[in-house]
Specification:
Protein name: GrpE protein homolog
Function: Essential component of the PAM complex, a complex required for the translocation of transit peptide-containing proteins from the inner membrane into the mitochondrial matrix in an ATP-dependent manner.
Pfam families: GrpE (PF01025)
Helix content: 55-70%
Number of helices: 4
Order of helices and strands: HHHHEEEEEE
Keywords: Chaperone, Coiled coil, Mitochondrion
Family: Belongs to the GrpE family.
Number of strands: 6
Distance between the termini: 191 Å
Length: 225
Amino acid sequence: MAARSLWAVPRRLQRLLTSSAASDSWGWLHPFSTATQRTAGEDCSSEDPPDELGPSLAERALKLKAVKLEKEVQDLTVRYQRAVADCENIRRRTQRCVEDAKIFGIQSFCKDLVEVADILEKTTEYISEETEPGDKKLTLEKVFRGLSLLEAKLKSVFAKHGLEKIKPIGDKYDPHEHELMCHVPAGVEVQPGTVALVRQDGYKLHGRTIRLAQVEVAVESQKRL
């Protein structure tokens, strides 16, 4: 009996130790797992930004965009104002050039006409000084020479500036170049519908008619029965 009781004591002690170790192990693992879960939960929750930061970031982004757009509007406004000012300056300069062209466009032509006036003046002075009283023949000769020189100079000036005389004798009647004054009977040398006589010469400037020629146009004469 004493031997059996001694043998049973170690077995009971072993069971107690085993149960105590198991309880200690379960008690140690459970708090550890709970703390681990809490820490993981806190870490996960800390990664997400608070809801209060969302609207503030959006407002900041909108404000920055508004400031940028406002600067662009100001820049475009300044550019537009400069462009309008440049266009206005160009318009004024163009208008001034057009006005100057209207006033001084015939400057070269007038300069050449002054030479014609000089010839006419010198001819008049020469005739009045050199001609003897009563010598009509010499006077007419000097007048003729002066007028011939004057006509030649005028033709030169006209040709230089593109001004030409219309010579429509024998040409077909053209209402864009001729002004019909009357009809005359057609003859052997004058065909019907053509210009038979010129009462006043017409002129063209660089091919454009600036004065119509006053003409008489030939037509077929009606035979009397």
